[in-house]
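User: Predict the complex with magnesium ion.
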Amino acid sequence: MTAAMKSLTLLGATGSVGSSTLDVVARHPDRYRIVALTAHRSADALLALAARHRPRHAVLSGLAEDRALRRRFMEEAGAELLFGTAALEQVASEPGCDAVMAAIVGAAGLGATIAAARAGKQVLLANKEALVMAGPFFMRAVAEAGARLLPIDSEHNAVFQCLPGGANPGAASVRRIVLTASGGPFRAAPLERLAEVTPDQACAHPNWVMGRKISVDSATMMNKGLEVIEARWLFDAAPSSIEVLIHPQSIVHSLVEYIDGSMIAQLSNPDMRVPIAHALAHPERIESGAAALDLAAIARLSFERPDAQRFPCLGLAYAALGEGGTAPAVLNAANETAVEAFLAGRLRYTAIHDVIRHTLERVPAARADTLEVVLEADARARRAAAEFAATLQERAA
Ligand code: NAD
Ligand code: MG
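Assistant: Here is the predicted structure with magnesium ion placed in the model:
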């Protein structure tokens, strides 16, 4: 039996999640058709993908109109090339697409991801920052438009798989959600060495190959903090019912504990094609290309509680979630600014936490009544974080 063809818009096609998605899609040409691919500025990489997948539209959101480039895309890939951020929202909401993979990194993905939800699309959500910034708006847009939200983040996809029928997770029968974390590259490094670690060391994740921003977030465990907030909105879960455990093997991707004492977990090799294939085919199952899990070869699965001194960013995320309103948007914006400065060699690794904490103190949380208020808090937080990061750099110089 052949399933109906699903047409897919892929936001962030040139990234790590983007290329894993295209890998899965290419394995199932009878099931998926790419209607749009987007990238920020990497024109050549996008053109190569467009030539291979033949979308109707390609978008370079970070570039201004360029006629020669537009002609090349038409001639070499048969794709109409669009420019600028407005084009992201256009391809995320256009009638010809059934599903949107939201795989842009950071707050830059918010507009297009919300546009997809408002258009009632099936939204495959990798862009966790969008949900962290604007959780209640995002979930309301999904509900009002009758959109379908499927988590791509491996932990949330795991939780989704461990919930009855993959839905209605706020159920009273659930006691806890346990998100697992690898602990990143510095889980066992001497604490006094952390001030000196380089961007490349921070990006050398032991189990996953990912974009640089999320790799740094994994090292600081802000990634898990963002994921706690993500889980709060995705699963309508009380913050106190979301727990984090370090699991260095990255085989158990998360667990759900029920009131009878049962825990259900999802296991696989750490390969993003597993959650991507799950969400693409849901409620069916398709081959993902991931290697089968050999539990006997892995032999040992271990778990430990995160050390608050080593991973102070995790506590900041819980605090921002508890504070509510615009606090998670401030947390996210400060983190993006600090990580960017760290990756550019302008901030010490250990100062990432200082910048975020300072920014949360400087930019008080307001009620997040409108999306405009959230975006304003994001902008204020970026300014405050950048100023503070610059002060730290001057002091160090
Ligand atoms: P990446 O850096 O590899 O790719 C990011 C993509 O977004 C690229 O296609 C880039 O062109 C595009 N982009 C960057 N800045 C942009 C901007 N300002 N406007 C529009 N487009 C822009 O990132 P990634 O690792 O693939 O992560 C993507 C998202 O998925 C992030 O939100 C991340 O937290 C989440 N995620 C990633 C993984 C993973 O394994 N990589 C796992 C779970 C969740
Ligand atoms: Mg994750």
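Residues 325 and 367 are 5 Å apart (CA to CA).
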